[in-house]
Write a structure and sequence with these properties.
This is Integral membrane protein. With 260 residues, the chain is an alpha+beta fold. The chain folds into two domains: 121 residues, no CATH class; 118 residues, no CATH class. 28% of the residues lie in helices and 20% in strands. The strands form two sheets. Strands 5-6-7-8-9 form a five-stranded antiparallel β-sheet, sandwiched between helices. A four-stranded antiparallel β-sheet has the order 1-2-3-4. It is elongated and about 60 Å long. The two termini are 32 Å apart.
């Protein structure tokens, strides 16, 4: 970053680990790392998003995952927690933000791309969130994120008697192909992060699986939802039937889980 504006005003942070990463960056952990020019180390990274003294957007990559995880946990609990990675743990400072951030640092200009005269900003592409008006892999994964976060709301919209594979023109063979891909994951584990398991109420887990052109969100004690690149904005529910419970249990068995 420019030496005269190198103080970073932190706005938010996210983890980039095999079990927990911004899915907008890729279908799995190696893809997410590649999107930022990083090696997919097993220990992972912390991504700190903020503005410099001139208001420009920057993403600082740190190897101090514990520090970033602790700050995120504190913020989630409504506790103020300063986040200032030690310079020795900083891997890189990337211009722009890969995610949408709705807030800005007080007293600074509105967030903007670093000036082209900035040496670092001129050497690497400026990060930017995906175009929300288009539909593609990033938007499909963001849609799956939303379902996972708002499971109860989406579940209410699905009929209780939904079939194992939804019936309708073209839906059957699309969705069956996704289920076949999931079965293949159970037999031959995919790259790290393709299948993730997160806490849900009771003894259930929220499962997330992604692959080329598709995303699946499911609750181990309930149904699943499928999103496809080739079906913009559509969400296909998959009922439990006799097959889904065992498939989800097997999938949960190979899924990565956050450390905390």
């Amino acid at each position: 970053m420019a030496t005269d504006e190198d103080s970073l005003h932190v706005l938010t942070a996210v983890l980039l680990t095999p079990a927990r990463f911004p899915s907008v960056l890729g279908d799995d952990y190696p893809q997410a790392c590649a999107a930022l020019g990083l090696e997919p180390y097993a220990e992972g990274y912390g991504l700190v998003l903020g503005q410099d003294g001139g208001g420009a957007r920057w993403t600082v990559v740190t190897e101090d995952v514990t520090l970033v995880a602790g700050a995120i946990a504190a913020w989630d609990c409504g506790i103020d927690q300063e986040l200032s990675p030690d310079a020795g743990t900083v891997i890189s400072a990337l211009p722009g933000w890969p995610l949408s951030v709705a807030v800005a640092a007080p007293g600074l200009p509105a967030p903007h791309d670093p000036p082209e005269t900035d040496e670092l900003a001129s050497e690497v592409p400026v990060l930017a969130p995906p175009d929300s008006s288009a539909w593609g892999p990033a938007q499909r994964r963001l849609g799956a994120d939303e379902i996972a976060l708002q499971w109860a709301q989406w579940r209410e919209e699905a009929e209780d008697g939904v079939e194992f594979v939804p019936r309708g023109e073209g839906c059957d063979s699309r969705v069956r192909g996704v289920l076949a891909a999931i079965r293949a994951y159970v037999q031959t584990p995919p790259p790290p992060g393709r299948v993730r398991s997160a806490f849900a109420s009771g003894d259930a887990r929220i499962l997330r699986a992604d692959g080329p052109g598709w995303s699946v969100v499911a609750r181990t004690d309930d149904i699943a939802f499928v999103l496809l690149d080739e079906a913009p904005g559509e969400v296909f529910p998959v009922g439990r039937g006799s097959e889904l419970p065992g498939l989800l249990a097997a999938l949960d068995g190979i899924a990565l889980r956050p450390a905390a």
